[in-house]
Amino acid sequence: MGTCNGMDLLLIRHGITEWNLQKRYLGHTDIGLAEGELSKLDPLKLALRNQSYHAVFTSDLKRCKETAHYLGIGTHLKEDARLREMNFGEWEGKTYGELKSKPEYQRWLRDWEQHATPNGESWSEFTSRLDSFLEDLIQCGEIAKINTNQPIVVITHGGVVRYFLWKFKAVHSFWDLPIKPGQAFRLSVSREGEGWLCNSLLAVPMQEKEK
Question: Where is the signal peptide (predicted)?
Answer without folding.
Answer: none
